[in-house]
Structures are given as C-alpha cells and as structure tokens.
C-alpha cells in the first residue's frame, strides 16, 4: 500500500467523531494504553459500540491491540501516527507554482 493510500485510510478512520475521540484519548494515555472498559468510562460509550470503532482504527493501522488476561489493551501506533503526520507535512511551505508552457503564453 502506498503512503498516500495508507494516509487516506487513516484519515477516513479518524473522520468520525467517536473514532477521533477514541484516538485522542489513546494518545493521551500514551504507551500504557487503555482497555475497552476504560475507554467506555471516559467517553460514555457502550463496549459494543467501541469494539466497532476500535476495529476500524486497528484496520487503518492507527491502533494496536494486545490481550492481557481477560481484557484487550488498546494503544496508538505512534510510529504510524508520526508517519502519517510526516507525509502530510513533508512539503510544507515549499511553494506551489504552475509551470508555464509555450502554448499557455
């Protein structure tokens, strides 16, 4: 998958209020992550709703899950997040100019 395609997929996953809230919460939690129950307590969402949204974030490569006993720990894939941000800002302020051709003169 190209960087453009993976970034597009990640941005599409973040384009939902609940998923964006989950992602931002997990960013704040850092490497410790949060269980589905803890995310639900913070956001006031049912576990079944969260499971659907977390699945989308996992499929987009933004969140990783790890089973710990009976619960599933959710963490942001910070390398993937940084890669997405680097791609979005790689050409920041480099200028955009149309090339003049002889026929356009």
From TrEMBL:
Keywords: DNA-binding, Transcription, Transcription regulation. Signal peptide: none annotated. Pfam families: HTH_20. Residues 1-96 form the HTH arsR-type domain. It comes from the Bacteria. Gene3D superfamilies: Winged helix-like DNA-binding domain superfamily/Winged helix DNA-binding domain (1.10.10.10). NCBIfam families: HTH_metalloreg (NF033788). This is ArsR/SmtB family transcription factor. It comes from Roseovarius ramblicola.
């Amino acid at each position: 998958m190209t960087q453009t395609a993976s970034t597009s997929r990640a941005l599409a996953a973040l384009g939902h209020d609940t998923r964006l809230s989950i992602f931002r919460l997990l960013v704040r939690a850092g490497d410790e992550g949060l269980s589905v129950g803890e995310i639900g307590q913070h956001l006031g969402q049912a576990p079944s709703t969260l499971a659907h949204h977390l699945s989308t974030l996992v499929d987009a490569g933004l969140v990783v899950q790890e089973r710990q006993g009976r619960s599933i720990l959710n963490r942001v894939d910070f390398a993937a997040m940084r890669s997405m941000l680097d791609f979005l800002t790689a050409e920041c302020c480099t200028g955009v100019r149309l090339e003049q051709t002889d026929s356009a003169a």
